[in-house]
Amino acid sequence: MICVSVDAQKLQHNWENYIVSLNGKPVSINVDLGLKPQVPVSDLPFVIIARVKMNNINQWGMPEQDEVNQLDKVEEKMVENLNRFQGAVYVGRFTQRGIREFYFYSNDTSKYQSSIGNVFLESGNFKWLAQAKRDADWENYLTVLYPSVLDLLLIDSRKKVNENARKNPKQLPVSVVHYFEFQKETDCKTFLQSPVCAQYKVIQMLRNSPASAISLLMSSSVVADRKWAEKTIPVLFSESKKHGGLYKGWEIGQ
Known about the structure:
By secondary structure, the protein is of the alpha+beta class. It contains seven helices and ten strands. The strands form two sheets. It has a six-stranded antiparallel beta sheet with strand order 1-2-4-5-3-6, with helices on both faces. It has a four-stranded antiparallel beta sheet with strand order 8-9-7-10.
């Protein structure tokens, strides 16, 4: 048995799921965001990837419910085996077009095929393959699984709208404040002239020092639910980026 390193034992975990579109098809990604501050973990320089071909999928390439239950059992047992025998840390998975891939990082790749193969001996008729390779920079975690800046904003927005629904069950309109940063005043003013900004009230446009960025705050009254967030956040993100700015997120005002 390979013992997990001291550093690996101290890893913090924060699992999230998000969905992106690739060539018109959904890709569902589950990832441990809590690992990001410590990535790359020097004690875990190898990535182990297990790919499973699903048998019962819907029109979007996602597993039907009976398949989900089987895959959950496979996942649980695979995590257990690879942690026990290879000291591996499970970092996430993605699902698309009838394929699910599981990602682990380890300091030992000996006999990982056996650890994974024993899972599928018990689980029945899944076709699978696995590989292990050196990935000291954790590129697979960072480029395959970890969300983009926009996806992180949408994940954060989902939490905020859920909290708003808990505090505001009737979903009454609330004042929402959006935060932006611009390096150039001309870019900020051009952004404010775009049609996207017509519905917002500017409540702050401030540069604290000549070397600092311009902080822009805009507000509007909205029903802050998930549909609103998924429609609004990508537009503000892309429009501000087009004008040299950075969308930082939003909060419900007082």
